Amino acid sequence: MRLLFLLLAILPLALAAPKSAVARYAVRYDNFRIYSLFIDNGGQMEELKKISQEISVHFLNELAGPGNSYNVIVGPLLHKYVESKLEYLEIVYKVIVDDLQKLLDKSAVDKDTEMEWESYHTLDTIYDWVDKECAAHDYLECKVIGQSYEGRDIKSIRLSKREGNKAILLEGNIHAMEWISSATVTFLLNQLINSEDPEMQRLSEEYDWIVVPMVNPDGFVYTHEVERLWRKNRRPNGASNSSGLCYGIDMNRNFDYHWGGAGWNIDEPCDHWFGGDEPNTESEILALQSFVSSFDDGYIRSYMAFHAYGQYVLLPYGHSNTEFPPNYEQMKRIAAAFSDAASEPYGSAFTYGASGLLNYVVSGAAKDWAYGVKKIPFTCTVELRDKGTFGFFLPSNQITEVGVEVTAGLKALVNKAAEEGIFD
Ligand SMILES: [Zn+2]
């Protein structure tokens, strides 16, 4: 399955260099469309893969089989060609974004602001905020757990106000382009530190919280400075294609639990979903794994990885849709509590269940490693807003709403998990 998702280096780079504060990226997407395609059968799937090899289009979802919708970015010179191909193949499609650059411009990044949750921020602003909170509160223990491939710090914060608490770990931004992830994780941390809501204060008192807000700092910086749509880390992975060297590993495909047993595209180094030649190869996830392993067994009782998008609480396992964890029913009840509560503020519905069932079968995710290897009894991937309207490019004016609904969900999740004996 050779899928070349290299976007178009040629077209965007040929356009004018950014001049205004709004035009921030080296790569621009003026008049690029996003098409949503529904792939009905295996024949269409095969043809779609051929198209992706012939021309430069950028799929936003893994091509995991028929019966699914896929979003694909197409440059202005290729609209007509792609539409006529789709019509010939009788693939149902619609244009969901007419000008991607306009959408990206709504994800405002203000490089001068202090940390708040109405715009997206650079790595420096996020880390400066973390450092400031750490300096201000004795109950926060902050440390650098390792370095990325390009040498950036991976920071962690542990909040502990009481001896003997059990811990909940929140993981952010392992996928570079999913900015809402670190925005939400820092929102939650800020609530735990600074909220005056008595329920939040209680959770901050009765549980320890371990937060790694930015697992992929290199990729994140790259999405700010060069290519908004980058997903992986930035280590040259040894392969190359017509655009040059291929970079990066999809780090949420690199964890070693039933690694490589199932999944799509994991052997294509230039794909956005390349899981590595073998598991546990990336310095970022090795740092995260040894950090998790540095705590006593049984201390971390819940591991939550935040991603975008689709509004799911994905439970183990990813590697199978016929094998389920021993306490799967219990995890579903806990996820249901999150889902019910998270829908209250604004009506956002979160679907929950095993990722191999709800999403597709794929191995190497953090939540499966945390459950299967580290024996943490409740683990999940939370796919945040939305359900496809903006997808990976959620406008910054939704950050606070996402934070509010996830806070509501998290409170209910922790209480339900306590009732179920997860923290005993
Ligand atoms: Zn993700």
The CATH architecture of the largest domain? 3-Layer(aba) Sandwich
For the record, the count of structural domains works out to: 2
What percentage of amino acids are in beta strands?
15-25%
- Main sheet: which strands, in order across? 5-6-8-7-11-14-12-13
Protein name: Blast:Zinc carboxypeptidase A 1
Active site: 383
Cofactor: Zn(2+)
Organism: Drosophila guanche (Fruit fly)
Walkthrough of the structure:
With 424 residues, this protein is an alpha/beta fold. It folds into 2 domains: 74 residues, 2-Layer Sandwich (Alpha-Beta Plaits), CATH 3.30.70.340; 254 residues, Aminopeptidase, CATH 3.40.630. 34% of the residues lie in helices and 19% in strands. Strand 12, helix 10 and strand 13 form a beta-alpha-beta unit. Helix 6 packs across helix 7 and helix 10 runs antiparallel to helix 13. It is globular. Bound molecules: zinc ion. Zinc ion binds next to loops. The site of zinc ion has 4 residues, from loops. Belongs to the peptidase M14 family. GO terms for molecular function: metallocarboxypeptidase activity; zinc ion binding. It is found in: Secreted. Involved in the digestion of the blood meal. It comes from Drosophila guanche (Fruit fly).
Give me a quick take on this structure:
With 424 residues, the protein is α/β, with parallel strands linked by helices. 34% of the residues lie in helices and 19% in strands. The longest helix has 21 residues, at 399-419.
List keywords for this structure.
424 residues, alpha/beta, Alpha-Beta Plaits, Aminopeptidase, 2 domains, 8-stranded mixed β-sheet, 4-stranded antiparallel β-sheet, binds zinc ion
